[in-house]
Amino acid sequence: MTATTIIGADYSAARSDPNPTWLAAGRFEGAALVIYKLENVGSARLAAELLILKNSSQTLAAGLDFPFSWPQAFLDWARRSGRSLEQTDFEQMEALAALYRLEMGKETYKKMGKEMGKEPRRRTDDLIRPRAQSPLHRINPGMLKMTWQGGRLLNELRGGGFMIAPFDGAPSVKAREAAEPGEKAGAKAGEKAGANATKSHPYWAFEVYPAATLLALSLPCQKYKGRSAEAIALREMILEALQAPAALNKLHTLTSGAKTLPGLSFAPNAATNLLDLARCSDDALDALLACYSTALALLFPALTGPGSILPDDETASAAAAEGWIYSPYSPLVKI
Questions:
Q1: What is the pTM of this model?
Q2: Domain boundaries, the chain
């Protein structure tokens, strides 16, 4: 069985070229997710890099760290305002409720966001821990710009053969079960997770949130960014913990029946260099965490998919309209 390629990307909307958009790529090997690529590709090259990896992989799952769509309140406001929107756009919004499919300009997004006068969150932003910023957030971080640019990237990926979860559907929880109860996340479990996750289609893109994965693993999800000695020490702690998953024991969000977590490992011929990159750059580490988050989404679908936390009658309307963060959710979150 050919192992599924697991991708993680930490997206930047900065103007520099290349900007600090990092990409990590790995595969399940034995009991580990083995990283063989970690590179600052820049956002301008990200789509091309993902399509190259897709074309060289039989199956691939990519976790991207930016909002895939907009809050329902913003979608409703856009419908009511009608500014700069064609009727065909309204029809698309009605059918898919996904603004990433619309060919609107960045200035239109900015204008609409400012005129709305507030920054509503998506349902997934409110449910995930730590809470995610609204896709309309404009300053530090500039989520609105990132969401708009990310939407154009998703259009390009979809045109290149990717399915975008949850808008193009998603592998069902049942189809994506990684292993039988109690089976360890080793070679068989990891490969089965990748194979089952891509039964309906071989190439998927998911929205992930590295900070939520860190919190679910009871690891520091703040203060690890930057050049301070404390930040570097925290990045080293995170890397050491992910390479020794037995010490993590179980996902913090699990209440029972936890499967063993995959360890993070590195290709032998590049391990030192890749580790140094992740220690020195918080953006590089976030790409690794996005990659690991994607692996968890395949291994633990009941903890990451919308059906696991939203009531059935709300899942389709909320997730299909606003998108969904496929990172671990706490069962203690109040609906």
A1: 0.85
A2: 5-68+150-322
